[in-house]
Amino acid sequence: MKQPGGGDPAWRRELRRGLESGDRQALARVPKTDLHCHGLLSAPLATYESLLGYPLPLPPVRFGSFQRFADYIAANLLATMSGPDSVRAIVRAALQRMAGDGIVYAEMSFDLLVPEFIGIQIEAFGELLAEELSRVAGRLTVAPEIGIARGLPASEAERRLRRWLASGVGRS
């Protein structure tokens, strides 16, 4: 591929062709970045449905507010995050979907409270995440972000954040 400003690189032609023809496979071949995605909300809906054993209502095209987004997650997706095995399945499916869509770099956020929520130590969650990242390492580079819950008191966040940082799980 040519450097930016050096003409019409192959990815631009592929992007244009894919957009004009509606060719999803062509669009998947275009390298992309995802600079803000949620690790446990990025899997295909079929993954959550498989874990739950029943179909989910489709999310709206636009939620309209952050509260409606949070309500959809609480009502439909939280139950799938019942332990390390289900979270592993969600992370694996999210990473596979991203790699399959042509994403080559992602900054994927994982909430500070996820390990506690699923009943494992931060270090064990780090190992789980490292294993899943290694599965896509040749196709996708992920910089895990540590997400801090808005309502968590600063002293509680700091205590957990120190352990996360010591584990090497997060990159930002």
Architecture overview:
- The chain has 172 residues and is of the alpha/beta class.
- The protein is built from eight helices and four strands, in the order ααβαααβααββα.
- It has helices spanning 10-21, 24-28, 45-52, 66-77, 84-100, 114-118, 122-135, 154-167, and strands at 32-38, 103-111, 141-142, 145-147.
- Strands 1, 2, 3 and 4 form a four-stranded parallel β-sheet that branches.
- Helix 5 runs parallel beside helix 7 (122-135).
- The longest helix is centred in the middle third of the chain and has 17 residues, at 84-100.
SSE topology:
Elements (H helix, E strand, L loop, with lengths): L9 H12 L2 H5 L3 E7 L6 H8 L13 H12 L6 H17 L2 E9 L2 H5 L3 H14 L5 E2 L2 E3 L6 H14 L5
Parallel strand pairs: 1-2, 2-3, 2-4
Helix pairs in contact: 5-7
Keywords:
4-stranded parallel beta sheet, single chain, alpha/beta, 172 residues, 8 helices
Describe the structure concisely:
By secondary structure, this protein is α/β, with parallel strands linked by helices.
